[in-house]
Amino acid sequence: MKILVTGAAGFIGSALSLRLLERGDEVIGVDNLNDYYDVTLKQARLARTASHRNFTDVRVSLEDRPGIEQVFARHRPQRVVNLAAQAGVRYSLQNPHAYIDSNLVGFLHILEGCRHHDVEHLVYASSSSVYGANTSMPFSVHDNVDHPLSLYAATKKANELMAHTYSHLYRLPVTGLRFFTVYGPWGRPDMALFMFTRAILAGQPIDVFNHGQCQRDFTYIDDIVEGIIRTLDSVPAPNPHWHGGKPDPATSNAPYKLYNIGNNNPVELLHFIATIEDCLGIKAKKTMLPLQPGDVPATYANVDDLMRDVGFKPDTRIEDGIGQFVRWYRDYYQA
């Protein structure tokens, strides 16, 4: 297939593009290489795919309406995976306008491109952050998610609503994927695993929020990519049992689906740090701090729907995943 992947120089987008190319798909990779974090890391990720004969490298921002229109008109992708976004819960407290521009305006341009060019299936990245103030564990896609705790989370919830509208109005098949704390080699420098590893190796203290009592459903990058590909290949159909009298948020009478992609095994932050220490052979200096604004104490994914519909459940052990990351980090940075 010809597949448009936005955020192709990003952590998930790069890994996904490689897998799609390996199985014989043609990939149109869109990225703007912004400087939210180290551009040289994005360029290094992109170098892994850019030389492939079935990869087309396109430099454009989602919020560039004429640019995105041209991408769809020129390349006419059969399917689209939208992974480009302004990421980060904490950064959304400092620079909210970036989230509106990329995550709302930009996503509208993707939806319009899919609508006007007969795209067979749009898969887009949502986030576990949409669960917000929910405390019912594990988080289910069938639960209400109307209490986000950060603007980032609110934009991801908005993406789900926008996608449903286009699915209803134009019968566009759409699948939203709520990712749970993705980690692994080639990861983002603003994520905990990257920051902790860098600081520990440099002998610097690490900030441990909520006094280490946070729990996260850490999900390894290979599992995330497998989940994306399986759902991409499974085009949603309307749910014949859906009823407005008791509306199910995860399905619809339109071709619309939501899935969690998480490890279904929350890990306490202190255990996460201890595993990094074991892999590095160095003890961390910890600065214990309270929970940050916008953060949630715990995440935990119910993946029953994912298992039922596409036969997949993430299962990489945290010890294995962190070990893979540390090996990559030492090699990439010669640390």
Count of DSSP E strands? 13
Q: What is the overall number of helices?
A: 11
**Uncertain runs with pLDDT below 50, 5 residues or more?**
none
Radius of gyration: 19 Å
Q: How do the strands and helices of this protein lay out in sequence?
A:
Elements: E1 2-6, H1 11-22, E2 26-31, H2 39-50, E3 55-59, H3 65-75, E4 79-82, H4 91-94, H5 96-116, E5 121-127, H6 151-170, E6 174-179, E7 182-183, H7 192-201, E8 206-208, E9 215-216, E10 219-220, H8 221-232, E11 256-261, E12 267-268, H9 269-280, E13 286-288, H10 304-310, H11 318-333
Parallel strand pairs: 1-2, 1-4, 2-3, 4-5, 5-6, 6-11, 7-10, 8-13
Antiparallel strand pairs: 9-12
Walk me through this protein's architecture.
It is built from eleven helices and 13 strands. By secondary structure, the chain is an alpha/beta fold. The model has no long low-confidence stretch (mean pLDDT 96).
Task: Record keyword descriptors for this entry.
globular; 11 helices; 13 strands; single chain; 7-stranded parallel sheet; two-stranded parallel ribbon; 335 residues; alpha/beta
Task: Tell me briefly what this model is.
This protein is an alpha/beta fold. The protein has helices spanning 11-22, 39-50, 65-75, 91-94, 96-116, 151-170, 192-201, 221-232, 269-280, 304-310, 318-333, and strands spanning 2-6, 26-31, 55-59, 79-82, 121-127, 174-179, 182-183, 206-208, 215-216, 219-220, 256-261, 267-268, 286-288.
